[in-house]
Design goal:
The structure holds 2 protein chains of 2 kinds. Chain A is of the alpha/beta class. Chain A contains 26 helices and 25 strands. In chain A, α11 (265-281) links the parallel β9 and β10 (285-291). By secondary structure, chain B is an alpha/beta fold. Chain B has helices spanning 17-29, 40-49, 66-74, 90-99, 111-123, 159-170, 178-186, 194-208; strands spanning 9-13, 33-37, 54-58, 81-85, 103-106, 133-136, 139-142, 147-150, 153-155, 175-177, 218-221, 225-228. Chain B is globular, with a radius of gyration of 18 Å. Chain B has 8 helices and 12 strands. Classes of the chains: A alpha/beta, B alpha/beta.
Chain lengths: 889, 231
């Protein structure tokens, strides 16, 4: 079989065409998305509406919930607000959007709050988003608001986070219709502050909300969810730009696979197995690593990196998430990404895991997974046991922490020796306190050790009979048992909470970094600005130095960007190039050239690298998976910016090309017209000369002369314009007599001006001015010609010149009594190939453009105005410094 | 006008056959003898073999820069040279004038203008015939007595004004570059003080011209210099 280059799928193309067609008639939808209530979506939406109104758009507010917030209320000022429709439902009267009335008004822009709202029974549609859809189809543009928890595909994730089930959801397909999605973002602290200030809910509801839904940890997670949702959408939109063109793989089904990846060699098999399954189903797949709370050992990290790199290479989307509960993390990720199948390795080791609460990982995933299919794949070869469960990481803590534990226990034991013998119960409590305090400071392993060690010491040294492990009294035995259990459980719990808090803080940090980056990139007006902002963010967030190399024209050789904070030598450059070419990370922390100083990540868009991000962290520092994940997110965002820039540049090139094509056509058309007209005059006049009598002969030669003059002028103008455009025009200012300048210009056009009475007023005692004689004369002559050609015969032309502003400036005025210029022409007047609407004698429309060019080249300016009493006035201003007076003789 | 006994011979160096033909027709109708050369090399050889009374030289020749032709010519001869040039080569014109050309004519040009310029450059060739008194309109310049009269009354000129007028009279009908005037009146170091020149010219016009705003005799030659028009 021959492999053809991928051709556009006709069905896809048709679908795209249909989509475009529908879109053309459909109104535009803009959604203001927030992570939760109170972030200011309605406020942002109304501000946008106000801007539209000021811009002259007809805006109608369909329905807006101000929740009594005064700032929001104030923004309604000046907008048309539709009265609400009252609906009686049982006892209550509900107020709803009056869809009929809104449709009847056919506003250009409708403002409708709370997209996810459920309408009162008896309304036309059950959901408000259906109302919006109807409006869009009727051709109105719509502004609306939505919280991330109401997005159907994210509702489960939100439930995972907050525990609250959402009943009001909006299908993702509606959001796909949105032409614009604006994320309204505030930091969790900020939001909680606003909540406390009563800006979100009033009164008691606020306090309840602060404890419930608005917990800081919830907010951070929701915010990350909203950010990711927005980022994914932007990503998808960019992809959609190209989608109809030859997409190699079209997902056949709604299936999506998810595989859990750890650091064991078995994970490698698992990744390959999943890839085979995904390929067989034609489905996309995701590789997820659940990062334990404590960092893995270096060699494990290396194996893990390899496994993830393999997955990426095999086409998986690689995600890293953090959780103490592996099963929960896997199921949550699966739900977030709409995965329909989860692939797990069959555990070989953990006979005891059956006795853990909830059973083994496989059991727990199956339990929580609902209707997600779970595949359990047996290991094909004997290898070390799976390291998915995090217990063995957590048992391993630094020696220093064990030192702390030993020291504390020893110190307390010594202190306890000073107590009277029968105080051993109090000593036990002190030990317990110490274990719990330790758990705030050290990891779970050392806490476990502290519990056991202190219990044994207490028993051996303090519980009578002392210096034996034997316990005599039953209550002492009970006490000892209770102590042991309490110490272990309390210690473990505290340590776990602490670890979770740490992880939370890290995640918050990541979300913030990602948000800052997204914002900086969005705010940047140029690619350079974007790169600069992104690199500075990376510098400060990772405590590293960064560099960015961009491929020339998107695929050529790499060039370092000036914003980088370290320079690459040849060796590092080679690593970066390798990374770019192979579209894989390289350098330090990877398998490829790990001895390099920098770690290099390619900026991959579609099937090519548009550049490489290089990071140098201090020698002793390492890169955690989470940091690496974040760096990859940075690289992705940067790649998007770069590609956007390329697309934009391509678009601009095309526009320029079209514009220059237009100019060329205009030029060719008018040049051929302008050349042929006088030429045909000359030709026919010459033919008639032979047979003409004396009188006719004279008039014929007059015609020939006029035609020749016109040709000469045309050539002159074309040459002048060429000189202006080629940039070789270098004015050579010299002292000129103003009178001379005016006379020379008048001489140039005397014949053409013949039909117009001329009024010249130039004071006789003007000092010489410094100007380029030829350019100035040419500019004046063109203005005079312009007056002669565009005004009716026998109307006067006025010329004056002089000094003003105390001799700081020379002016030349050419005025006429013609029709003047329509106001809308004024901006275009000095452009190439533009002609007034009342063109009489043709011309190329170059004259004024040349005047402007010649005047600007001399540092002057030209102004067009209306002549009081009718006609146009052109004024040329040139800067002037008075000359020295000659020495008297 | 009676034709001279020995009609002057002119050499036209131009690569455009149509221009050469046109020049021949125009000049021969006024009694000049015309020879033609197509390239600078041929033109220089022709001029060396049989020196003409004047040369009409196109600046844009294919085989040699016009300025270079004049320089080569000036190495051995003072034959008057009239430059033909296209409009936008102001710098070339000045360079050619500085190199020793006598005057220039811009293409496209009219026949009468051409003949006036040719007469002007040929006049210099006979310095012996220089009249002591030159008249133009109601102005009379007596070079021997250093007196200028307008409508019969003496006009008082400063030394510089008279100097300026005398240079223009000497080269009357032909363009005189600003630099040339400055060099002769103020010396070689004053070539940039062109604003003095403007001031003196203004004064001179006020004293001599009927309408100093629209001078009839003391004309400005755009961007290059001045020209005294006597006919």
């Amino acid at each position: 079989m021959t492999s053809e280059p991928a051709r556009p799928d006709p069905d896809l193309l048709l679908a795209a065409l249909h989509e475009q067609e529908v879109r053309a008639h459909r109104g535009r939808l803009k959604v203001f998305l927030g992570m939760c209530p109170g972030v200011g979506k309605t406020y942002a939406m109304l501000r946008a509406a106000q801007q539209e109104r000021v811009g002259g758009t007809q805006v109608v507010v369909g329905i807006v919930e101000t929740h009594g917030r005064s700032e929001t209320q104030a923004l309604l000022e000046g907008l048309t607000v539709l009265p609400r429709r009252a609906v009686r439902h049982r006892e209550a009267t509900l107020e709803e959007l009056d869809l009929e009335a809104l449709r009847a008004l056919r506003p250009e822009l409708a403002v409708i709050d709370e997209l996810a709202h459920t309408n009162a029974p008896g309304s036309r549609h059950a959901k408000r988003w259906q109302d919006v859809l109807e409006l869009l189809e009727a051709g109105s543009n719509v502004l609306t608001t939505l919280n991330i928890q109401h997005v159907e595909s994210r509702a489960d994730a939100v439930r995972q986070i907050t525990g609250a089930t959402q009943h009001e959801t909006v299908p993702d397909s509606l959001l796909d219709l949105a032409d614009e999605l604006e994320l309204v973002d505030v930091t969790p602290e900020n939001l909680r502050e606003r909540l406390r200030d009563g800006k979100v809910y009033l009164g008691e509801r606020a306090a309840a909300a602060e404890e419930g839904f608005f917990q800081e940890s919830h907010l951070t997670a929701l915010r990350e969810l909203a950010l990711r949702f927005t980022a994914e959408r932007v990503d998808r939109q960019l992809r959609a730009l190209r989608a109809p063109m030859a997409k190699q793989t079209v997902w056949r089904s709604g299936e999506r696979l998810l595989v859990a990846v750890g650091s064991s060699p078995f994970s490698t098999q698992l990744v390959r197995w999943t890839r085979r399954l995904a390929a067989a189903q034609g489905a996309p797949w995701i590789a997820v690593h659940v990062e334990p709370l404590s960092p893995p050992a270096p060699e494990e990290q290396k194996r893990l990196d390899r496994n993830l790199a393999l997955a990426r290479e095999l086409g998986a989307e690689v995600l890293v998430t953090q959780d103490t509960d592996m099963a929960a993390a896997l199921v949550r990720t699966a739900l977030q990404h709409n995965a329909t199948q989860i692939v797990l390795g069959k555990p070989r080791h953990a006979w005891w895991s059956r006795f853990l609460p909830g059973g083994s990982l496989v059991d727990r995933v199956i339990q929580r997974g609902g209707n997600i299919d779970v595949y359990v794949v047996p290991a094909e070869t004997a290898g070390p046991p799976l390291t998915f469960d995090s217990i063995d990481h957590e048992l391993r803590s630094s020696a220093a922490e064990y030192g702390w534990v030993a020291g504390t226990v020893a110190g307390l034991t010594l202190a306890a020796q000073l107590l009277p013998q029968n105080y051993y119960l109090a000593a036990g409590l002190v030990f317990l306190l110490a274990v719990i305090l330790l758990s705030l400071k050290v990891g779970r392993g050392p806490v476990l050790a502290a519990g056991i060690l202190s219990a044994l010491t207490w028993n051996f040294l303090l519980i009578p009979p002392r210096f034996t492990f034997h316990i005599e009294k039953i209550e002492d035995g009970l006490l000892f048992g209770t102590y042991f259990v309490v110490a272990l459980v309390a210690g473990q719990l505290t340590a776990r909470i602490r670890a979770q808090a740490l992880a939370e803080r890290r995640r918050e940090g990541r979300a913030t970094a990602l948000f800052n980056l997204t914002r900086a990139l969005a705010e940047a007006r140029t690619l350079d600005e974007a790169v600069f902002a992104a690199l500075r963010q990376a510098d400060s967030h990772f405590g590293a130095r960064t560099a960015l190399l961009l491929a020339e024209d998107g695929s050529g050789p790499l060039h370092p960007h000036f914003a980088g904070s370290f320079a690459l030598d040849d060796k590092e450059r080679a690593v970066a190039e390798w990374s770019c070419r192979h579209r894989r990370g390289a350098g330090r922390f990877t398998d490829t050239l790990p001895a390099s100083a920098g770690f290099y990540l390619p900026l991959v868009r579609e099937d090519r690298s548009v550049g490489v991000l290089g990071v140098v962290v201090p020698r002793e520092a390492s890169l955690t998976l989470a940091q690496r994940d974040l760096l990859e997110a940075f690289a992705r965002q940067l790649a998007m910016s770069v590609e956007r820039d390329h697309l934009q540049a391509a678009g601009e090139r095309e526009k320029l090309l079209a514009e220059s094509e237009r100019l060329h056509r205009t030029l060719l058309d008018s040049v051929s017209h302008e050349l042929r007209t006088p030429l045909s005059v000359i030709t026919s006049a010459v033919e008639n000369l032979g047979t003409a009598d004396a009188a006719l002969r004279e008039s014929l030669t007059g015609e020939i002369r006029t035609a020749a003059r016109r040709l000469n002028r045309l050539v002159g103008n074309l040459l002048d314009q060429t000189r202006l455009e080629s940039g070789v025009l270098r004015p050579r200012p010299d002292w000129c007599d103003i009178q001379d300048l005016v006379n020379a210009a008048l001489d140039d056009v005397r014949d053409t001006l013949a039909g117009h009475p001329l009024e010249v007023s130039v004071p006789g005692d003007l000092p010489p001015v410094r100007a380029d004689f030829t350019l100035t004369v040419q500019a004046l002559a063109n203005l005079l010609l312009n007056a002669a050609l565009h005004t009716p015969a026998a109307t006067p032309v006025f010329v004056s010149a002089g000094l003003e502003r105390g001799g700081q400036r020379v002016y030349f005025v050419v005025a006429d009594r013609g029709p003047g210029f329509p106001a809308r022409m004024k901006d275009r007047l000095f452009k190439k190939f533009e002609q007034g609407d009342v063109t009489r004698a043709g011309g190329l429309g170059l004259g004024l453009s040349i005047v402007r060019g010649f005047v600007l080249a001399q540092g002057g300016e030209i102004v067009v105005g209306e002549n009081p009493g009718g006609g146009a006035v052109f004024t040329i201003y040139l800067p002037h410094t008075p000359p020295q007076t000659p020495p008297s003789e | 006008m009676s034709k001279p006994v020995h009609p002057p011979a002119l050499l036209v160096i131009d690569d455009e056959v149509q221009i050469r033909r046109l020049l021949r027709v125009t000049l021969e109708s006024e009694g000049y003898r015309v020879r033609e050369a197509e390239t600078a090399q041929l033109g220089l050889a022709e001029a060396a073999q049989q020196p003409p009374d004047g040369i009409i030289l196109d600046l844009g020749l294919p085989d040699m820069d016009g300025t270079m032709v004049i320089k080569r010519l000036r190495e051995w001869s003072g034959i008057p040279v009239l430059i033909l040039s296209v409009r936008d080569s102001e710098e070339d014109k000045i360079a050619a004038l500085d190199a020793g050309a006598d005057d220039y004519l811009t293409k496209p040009f009219g026949g009468r203008e051409l003949l006036a310029r040719v007469r002007a450059i040929l006049r210099r060739a006979q310095p012996a015939n220089e009249p002591a008194v030159v008249r133009m309109g109601d102005i009379e310049i007596d070079q021997a007595a250093r007196v200028v009269r307008r409508e019969g009354r003496e006009v008082r000129l400063t030394a510089k004004e008279y100097g300026l007028l005398r240079i223009l009279v000497q080269y009357r009908g032909k363009v005189v570059t600003h630099r040339q005037i400055l060099r002769e009146l103020w010396g070689p170091n004053a070539e940039d003080s062109t604003h003095y020149l403007r001031v003196h010219m203004t004064h001179l016009r006020q004293k001599l011209e009927a309408d100093p705003h629209v001078p009839r005799f003391l004309r400005t030659d755009s961007g290059i210099g001045y020209r005294l028009v006597v006919e």
